[in-house]
Amino acid sequence: MTMATDMSVALQLPTRILFEGRADRLTAVAPTGAFGILPNHVDFVTALVPSVMALHLPDGTEAIFGIDEGLLVKKGRNVSVAVLRAVYGDDLDSLQQRVETSFMQMDEEERQARSALSRLEADMVRRFAELQRPLL
Prior knowledge:
CATH class: Mainly Beta
Number of domains: 1
Number of helices: 1
Strand order of the largest sheet: 2-1-9-8-5
Structural class: alpha+beta
CATH topology: ATP Synthase, domain 1
Order of helices and strands: EEEEEEEEEEH
CATH superfamily: F0F1 ATP synthase delta/epsilon subunit, N-terminal
Largest sheet: 5 strands, mixed
Strand content: 35-45%
Distance between the termini: 82 Å
Radius of gyration: 21 Å
CATH architecture: Sandwich
């Protein structure tokens, strides 16, 4: 059995893939605490909490992401990470700023979508009530 030197990592959002590439190691945070994965780590699945996920890339650089809650699945040399929201940052300072800006914008868009959905539901209930009225 040969020892793997890197692993394939995919960071997926509901609407797109934010990152897809090779990594020498990954660090993230689960509900039980921070953890790291190397290419020959045992296969496992874990939930992720809102935190910073870091990938050490084969060229020696590091890719860091501010992530929301999600799920990480490691199987063989493949790591799949599915999260609700995530942003890429060049360093921790810029990442914090991007997370605040991006997540606040997403929260506002979600609030507007929930408000629109509530209006649609109320309109549907009103129309059903009108259907039940006896015709004169």
